[in-house]
């Protein structure tokens, strides 16, 4: 019979489950080697320090157990089977009821549009947190048509949602290859070195400026960082939902980036005001006054218009390349 974590000594846990330290480091209460049992260690944690972290002794162990269960699932290669997510409308800032339920399926791109301050980030946050009528909007998020298990909301490693923000900063003193290989190893994938090479190769197809394996991760430009993280998310992230904030400003081949994520069966939700990206989506959620004002389905006419927009974009791309090379644009063709 397997011994309970709470009865194991700290050193035994660290030796048997090295990743257990990650849980405590993330919580801000690093696990130190000692002769105590895990439960003894937790019970001796300073109550005031825990209060500052917003957690009680009992909850530390409960969340640790959830963390360890998910780590075991990752090791076994178990992946969450998410076919769809559904947003059940809440209320906008004026207290008005939002429109009815919206369901999104894997492999779909859903765009979110609306003016600054309309509530786009709040919607992304509700999805990321799998809101259960407990956020300011009172929205509820369903997974595969069901209320998700509580532990999914607080999982540290087996997250349902991966978010690609506008700004990315690296602080590790590693090369690009070392960084990605380290991540691949942490995901316990087969052949992590080969996987790292594949990710970097794909990232270079997205980036405007190429980089090599030995490029320091801190030396990457904003666009290169974004390209690397999109490729990393597509290949390594087990999160079935990807939230993207304004990819049009990332300096990458945004169409290829979306195609890569969709090919990996991700559900892509994207805040954008780029007409090409917006029309690539199956639907557009229009946000106004903090709520979902309406849902638009991309029409056949808009899809036809998308082809024209892409041709115009290619023309602009060529002019941008001319400028990048220090050339002039004396006439249009």
UniProtKB/TrEMBL annotation:
GO terms for molecular function: ATP binding; ATP hydrolysis activity. Residues 80-315 form the ABC transporter domain. SMART domains: AAA. It comes from the Bacteria. Pfam families: ABC_tran. Keywords: ATP-binding, Lipoprotein, Nucleotide-binding, Transport. The keyword Nucleotide-binding applies. InterPro entries: AAA+_ATPase, ABC_transporter-like_ATP-bd, ABC_transporter-like_CS, P-loop_NTPase. SUPFAM superfamilies: P-loop containing nucleoside triphosphate hydrolases (SSF52540). PANTHER family: OSMOPROTECTANT IMPORT ATP-BINDING PROTEIN OSMV. Belongs to the ABC transporter superfamily. This is ABC-type lipoprotein export system ATPase subunit. It comes from Natranaerovirga hydrolytica.
């Amino acid at each position: 019979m397997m011994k309970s974590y709470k009865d194991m000594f700290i050193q035994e846990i660290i030796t048997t489950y090295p990743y257990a330290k990650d849980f405590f480091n993330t919580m801000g209460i690093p696990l130190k080697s000692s002769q105590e049992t895990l439960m003894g260690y937790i019970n001796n944690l300073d109550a005031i320090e825990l209060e500052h972290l917003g957690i009680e002794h009992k909850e530390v162990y409960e969340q640790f157990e959830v963390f360890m269960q998910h780590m075991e699932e990752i090791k076994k290669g178990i992946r969450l089977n998410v076919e769809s997510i559904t947003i059940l409308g809440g209320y906008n800032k004026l207290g008005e009821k939002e429109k009815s339920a919206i369901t999104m399926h894997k492999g779909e791109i859903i765009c979110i549009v609306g003016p600054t301050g309309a509530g786009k980030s709040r919607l992304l946050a509700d999805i990321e947190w799998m809101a259960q009528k407990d956020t300011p909007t009172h929205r509820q998020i369903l997974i595969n048509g069901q209320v998700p298990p509580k532990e999914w909301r607080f999982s540290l490693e087996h997250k349902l949602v991966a978010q690609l923000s506008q700004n990315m900063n690296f602080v590790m003193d590693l090369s690009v290859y070392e960084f990605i290989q380290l991540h691949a190893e942490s995901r316990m994938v087969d052949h992590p070195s080969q996987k790292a090479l594949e990710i970097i190769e794909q990232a270079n197809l997205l980036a405007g400026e190429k980089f090599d394996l030995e490029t320091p991760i801190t030396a990457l430009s904003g666009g290169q960082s974004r390209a690397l993280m999109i490729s990393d998310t597509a290949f390594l992230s087990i999160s079935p939902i990807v939230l993207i904030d304004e990819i049009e400003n990332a300096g990458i081949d945004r169409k290829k980036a979306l195609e890569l994520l969709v090919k990996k069966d991700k559900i892509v939700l994207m805040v954008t005001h780029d007409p090409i990206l917006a029309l690539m989506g199956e639907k557009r959620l229009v946000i106004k006054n903090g709520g979902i004002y309406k849902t638009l389905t991309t029409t056949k006419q808009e899809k036809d218009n998308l082809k024209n927009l892409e041709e115009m974009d290619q023309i602009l791309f060529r002019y941008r390349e001319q400028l990048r090379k220090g050339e002039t644009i004396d006439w249009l063709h």
